[in-house]
Amino acid sequence: MNHSPKELTPSNxxxxxxxxTEIPLGKSVQYPAGYDAGLLFPIPRSGAxxxxxxxTAALPFIGWDLWNAYEMSWLNPKGLPxxxxxxxxxxxxxPNIIESKSFKLYLNGFNQTHFNxxxxxxxxxxxxxxxxxxxxxxxxILDPQDFASERIEECQGINLDxxxxxVTHYSPTPxxxxxxxxxxxxxxxxxxxxxxxxxxxxxKSNCPVTQQPDWACVQIQYTGHAIDHASLLQYIVxxxxxxxxxxxxxxxxxxxxxxxxxxQALSIYARYTRRGGxxxxxxxxxxxxxxxxxxxxxxx
Length: 300
Known about the structure:
This protein has 300 residues and is α+β, with helices and mostly antiparallel strands. It has 2 domains: 15-149, GTP cyclohydrolase I, C-terminal domain/NADPH-dependent 7-cyano-7-deazaguanine reductase, N-terminal domain (GTP Cyclohydrolase I, domain 2), CATH 3.30.1130.10; 158-285, 2-Layer Sandwich (GTP Cyclohydrolase I, domain 2), CATH 3.30.1130. Helix content is 19%, strand content 27%.
C-alpha cells in the first residue's frame, strides 16, 4: 500500500482529543487524495440514549446497524481499479456510531490507493472501523461476480400505508400509539395475544446537522396485544420533521412502542435509502428475536 496508516496526521488524532466542531457534515470538505483513517468521525451513542432514559444500565434491546457501501473501489498493485460492494455490521452495543459523511470521505480515500490484495483492503477496513466504533465490527466485501445474487425484496407483513387516515403530528408523538379496540374475542382484540408483522414506507426523518431528509421503510414485528394500525401509522409519520440520526430514530421507536404498547417481543428494522453511495439499516429487537435477512428494497 502507498500509505502509512499508523502515522498520526492532524486529521487522525485520537477520538478523545477531537471535538464536535470537526464533524464534516454540513461543511465543504476537500476530496481525499488517498487513504486516511483519520477521516472517520465517531459520535458517541450515549447522548441520544440519555434522552431516551437509557443510562448506564444494560440495553433493553439487541441489534446492529447494517451499512451498505455501493461505491467501494481501490487500485491493485498494477494500478487497475477494483470495485466491490462493502457490507459493514456495527453492533448496537458499540460506544460510537460513525458519522455518515466521514464514512463516505474515508471510503473515497481508497479510490487512488494501491493495495496488494483484497484481503489487505478487508483487514484495513476491519481495523479502522472497529477502532472508530470502539467495538469489533463485521466487514464483508462482495465481488462483482456476487452482484447478481444480491436480492431485492420489499418489507414483509401488512402494509400500513393503505389506510385512509388524517395526520396532524410531524414530530415524534408517542401518545398517538394505542391498542386495537374491539367488542369481540376474536384474535387481534386487546384480550388476546397475537403475532404480526407490519411495515410502512412513509418513515422520514431529517439529518440533525444538515436537516436533509432521510427516507426509509420500517418493518415492525411483535408479539403482544394487538396494536392499532391507524395509531401506529400516525406515530411513524410523526417523525417526518424530527432531527435525528437513523440509529437514534429506531431506538426511539423501540422505546416508545415498548412503553406504550408493552409487547412481549418486538423487532424494528428501518431500511433507509442511500445517500452518497451509502445506506444505513438499523435493527433493534428484544432478546430472542430473529435478525432480518440482509436484502434491500427497490428504493435502496
